[in-house]
Amino acid sequence: MGAVTRPAARHPAPARTALAGLAGAACALAGLVTIWASRLWLGRPVYVSELGAEGMPTARAFMVALLLVAAGGGAVAWGSRQVRSRAPLVGRWAPAATLWVASGAFALASQVPCTAGCPVPVGATFTWQDLAHVMVGTLGFAAACVAMLQISVADVGQRTARASLGCAVAVTLVAGTGGVLALLRVPGAAGGYLEHVATTIAVGWLAALGASLALERRPLATHGRGRATTSGRAPSR
Prior knowledge:
CATH class: Mainly Alpha
Order of helices and strands: EEHHHHHHEE
Distance between the termini: 17 Å
Structural class: mainly alpha
Number of strands: 4
Radius of gyration: 21 Å
Number of domains: 1
Largest sheet: 2 strands, antiparallel
Oligomer: single chain
Strand content: under 5%
CATH topology: Rhopdopsin 7-helix transmembrane proteins
């Protein structure tokens, strides 16, 4: 009888990978909790970035929250450095590199807050500081969405892949809608709520990815071009 292929054996993640994933998840969740605690303490609808605006009582807490998210992203990126995407376009570089870009952007955003009220940097309200904050914040969200797409087509568990695709679509739609409302200066709390929802999805995904690095079992590495087989006899040479 011919050789019958079987799924590759799977093994737990290495200890350092698991530790990095769990540490990243913990930092990300701590940052998200701090953001929501600041929002609830403030007691009024604001955009996420406005929590860290100059003169806001929540500014320092928001800076710490962004640094926690950035640290969490860096740890998860290190833990996922062996993960590769299979798609032609987003598979040209590792998801870890994209996560490091996103983490760096959020760390920079924590040090360059928007001015009081977080005005849209257009026309009479334009300032270089607000423009820089918007640019790095947008870069962070965009890089996070790209990382989600990369993970959705990577050699990870099906649940992680499907959740990553869903989160990428959700964050793009929700954050995009909130951004349009902000640019159009639509009055009301809708834009701020949408931005908080997008932030929650994105940071929650980061924490879940970190946990999956520690909990999911990985395929054993194969040597050469052979596959594990069950044929009842030794493979021919």
